[in-house]
Amino acid sequence: MNIFTAGLAQAIFQLTLLIALGWFMAHRGWVGPEARQPLMRMVIWVFFPAMIFDRVCGNRLINSGGTALLYLGIGFGMIVGGILVGRLVAMLLRFPEGNARRTFSYSSGINNFGYLGIPVTAALFDRDVVGVLMVHNVGVEAAVWTFGVAFLSGGSGLKGLKNLAQPIPLALVAALIVNFAGVGETAPAQFTAQLCHAVGECAIPVGTILTGIFLHEVLKGFRFFAEPRVSFGIILVRCLIIPVLLLTVASCFIADPALRKVMMVQAAMPAGIFSFLIVEMYHGDVQVALRYAVVTMVLCPLVTPAWLYLGSRWLGLGS
What we know:
The protein is mainly alpha-helical. It has helices at residues 6-27, 36-56, 65-92, 99-109, 117-124, 127-153, 167-181, 187-200, 203-218, 228-253, 257-267, 275-281, 286-314. It starts with 5 loop residues before the first helix and ends in a 5-residue tail after the last helix. The relative contact order is 0.18.
């Protein structure tokens, strides 16, 4: 498999342009702060659930409950493991107890599993592998809103369970029911999947533009070269330790070829760009989370292709 494809380069370049477009729209005042929440609700409650149903419904790689649980479990474990790795590194670097350490740990575990992970996976593999990624990502979402939020806020993870009764997990459940019931080829299921395909195509471009709109607000006054110890920890965790751990797990314990491909892409991803919004919601250290997103995105054009190449060789996916 040739990692350095025109499709991959085009996917990364398109994402960069869409983020820049969102930033420009906010800079010109075409989209004000009052529009951000409605746009986010539209992306999270409509576009992404539709895309998930389209990619999962009828997916031949998700043909049993055990397979789906494996994909969900790997997604959940990836986030939990990343947060614990971040906590260990924060302790070794002697970050102060409290918000800064918890935020660094939380941001360590959250990678860009959706906005960048989906188009990169689509550029490298077929739509069935993208469907596996969608199921994997719901496990990620579950970890983000339960274990992750509990760790960040110092509260109980049970409070985050209500977040699972949201359109994204519900769309996944509906698609899996259709799969396991064997009715994916019926006319109603096909009509629903086609409608969801049309709506879900909006998820990535609109969500990425929204990212640029948010960045316009939060980057005001941001100093890239401040806090060198935090930046060093970010590079150590996100660009070295976590990719090595994910690829080690994939090579030693995962036999499913599609899941190995998904884990290879996840290992190469920068930090989640929306993490600082969750951190702000739960009163963490927003500047630490923002630094995590910015530093890893700046390094992304170098780090992501490098780990995609190394990961394909490591997992035996290269030609």
